[in-house]
Design brief:
By secondary structure, this protein is an alpha+beta fold. The chain has 3 domains: 260 residues, no CATH class; 143 residues, 3-Layer(aba) Sandwich (Protein Transport Mog1p, Chain A); 54 residues, Membrane-bound Lytic Murein Transglycosylase D, Chain A. 39% of the residues lie in helices and 19% in strands. The protein contains 16 helices and 17 strands. The protein has a 7-stranded antiparallel β-sheet. The protein has a 4-stranded antiparallel β-sheet with strand order 5-6-7-15, with no helix packed on it. It is globular. The chain starts with 8 loop residues before the first helix and ends with a strand.
């Protein structure tokens, strides 16, 4: 399952805080949350890393293995693709040969999520999501990502950042104790600015080291700038879908990452130290073979989004959002935004004893501003349901709880202006929640990356039309293949498309 990127940001966060208690509001704050930060996790040690094709797994639980399990679970589990994993480990081995002091082994784990991200632990585990693998267009681009993550570990960035955080927190406490809470808050704010700047410098350092590493390993050093460009385009496309702006258009001095254009410019400048574009190996065909047939997008076992429709074959239900809503699955819920964050929705579930009525549950205190007089009971496609409205601050809500087996599914719609027409749209959407038939469940298949060769007469438009996506076929085809609308396909060249 995935998280929406944080592009609609502040207004959505306020919706969550106004509506829900007990942590539910967090999901709105996480809506449109930036993926692809390429940050490390954990505390690096003093060893420099080396990559080898395999890393023995401990038979006894250790802190490192426990952290590995936690992270894998957090990112959708491990995606089993032995051939792809073996190829990535071969790339790691080649990068290791370009390191100065190879003393630590590394092993790749592919994470089963469409989120674009990668990170490394000092234990030797390097993690890459299948979303990132789908975005990369050749081996040199993937090598740049892995070299970037290894650079974070070799430079001990995580431990340096943790030490800096402890220092800034101590300064704030001292200022509060000696002077005042106001002064302590000022010091804390200054510390956060300093930490953000410190983190941005670490990212630029990892970029620089990564470019040099892939260049020494014989890969095209310009692969790093190409991938960063694709990453920026991916962020911009997702921002436009949700009515927000890319971070480059809304600079934030609190950001922990430098802007993508700055990273691209510095990566190109570093690559030029090796020579003009065209040097080094891209190994594009080998990379495309390695990801041919890889799952794309949501895992059906965790529910899938197809346009405005959400289908969860494992849990056995489906739901369709109102028009204009853009949906994405998250770790805890189905989330949606419309009109740039002017409207939002959340669908999740909780265990509910049969002895507890839906009306009673609605009044249990998890919704701020619930209007008890608005509670009504009904059935939704044969399922018991209770509906109500709520008001908190500038936001109004239409809420529904639907009993489905031993669970209660909660549908929450938020808007600034709950007119009769808007409320009718929300209620109509609630009425689409229903149980899936067995034949419907059997028809749900994952989308997959398919590598195809351009034939005579093929165009960007004709190849994009083959993409089995509910919408944005052209934009996704261009993004997946690093193409612009002004480009043309090359006869005999291979491209990525998405099929069932």
């Amino acid at each position: 399952m995935t998280m929406l990127e944080r592009m609609a940001g502040r207004s959505a966060a306020r919706v969550g805080r106004a509506l829900l208690r007990g942590g539910l509001g967090l999901s709105f704050a996480l809506m449109l949350a930036g993926c692809a930060s390429l940050d490390p996790f954990g505390q690096p040690d003093d060893k420099a890393p080396t990559a080898l094709p395999s890393l023995p797994q401990p038979t006894v639980e250790t802190p490192a293995s426990a952290e590995h399990k936690r992270l894998v679970a957090q990112f959708g589990g491990e995606y089993r693709a032995p051939a792809t994993e073996a190829y990535l480990n071969q790339v790691l081995a080649r990068l290791a040969a370009a390191e100065d002091t190879p003393t630590q082994t590394y092993r790749v784990t592919i994470l089963n999520t469409p989120v674009v991200n990668a990170f490394a632990l000092p234990s030797g585990n390097l993690y890459i999501t299948r979303g990132l693998l789908a975005l990369a267009n050749d081996t040199s681009e993937v090598a740049a990502v892995m070299a970037h993550e290894i650079a974070h570990v070799t430079a001990r960035h995580a431990s340096q950042r943790a030490e800096r955080e402890r220092t800034e927190a101590l300064k704030s406490r001292v200022a509060t104790a000696i002077q005042s809470k106001t002064r302590g808050d000022e010091v804390l704010a200054d510390g956060r600015l300093s930490l953000a700047s410190f983190s941005r410098q670490q990212e630029l350092e990892a970029d620089l080291v990564g470019v040099k590493t892939i260049g020494r390993a014989g890969y095209d050093p310009y692969g790093a700038s190409r991938f960063l460009a694709s990453l920026g385009r991916s962020t911009a496309m997702r921002a436009s879908l949700f009515g927000g702006k890319p971070r480059e258009e809304t600079p934030d001095i609190m950001s922990t990452h430098p802007s993508t254009p700055e990273r691209i410019a510095r990566a190109i400048a570093t690559a030029r130290q090796f020579g003009a574009p065209g040097i080094g190996q891209t190994e594009r065909e080998a990379w495309l073979r390695a990801i041919d047939g890889m799952d794309f997008g949501d895992d059906p076992a965790e529910g899938i989004v197809r346009g405005r429709r959400f289908v969860h074959p494992k849990l056995g239900f489906t739901f369709e959002a109102p028009e204009r809503f853009v949906l994405e699955n998250s770790a805890k819920a189905l989330l949606g935004l419309a009109d740039g964050g002017a409207e939002a929705l959340r669908l999740d579930s909780v265990a509910l004893p049969s002895a507890t009525s839906l009306e009673t549950y609605l009044t249990a205190g998890w919704i701020d501003g619930l209007r008890q007089s608005s509670i009504e009971t009904r059935t939704v496609n044969g399922l018991p349901a209770a509906l109500a409205t709520a008001k908190s601050g500038d936001w109004s809500f239409r809420v529904a709880t639907i009993r489905f087996g031993t669970d209660a599914y909660r549908l929450i719609f938020a808007t600034r202006n709950l007119t009769a027409a808007v409320d009718r749209r929300f209620v109509d959407a609630i009425d689409t929640f229903r149980r899936l038939q067995s034949e419907e469940i059997s028809r749900v298949k994952p989308l997959r990356i398919s590598i195809v060769t351009a034939r005579f007469g093929d165009t960007i438009a004709s190849m994009a039309e083959r993409m089995r996506l509910a919408d944005n076929q052209l934009e996704n085809f261009l993004l997946l293949n690093g193409l612009e609308k002004s480009d043309s396909v090359t006869l005999g060249r291979q491209y990525k498309i998405v099929l069932e």
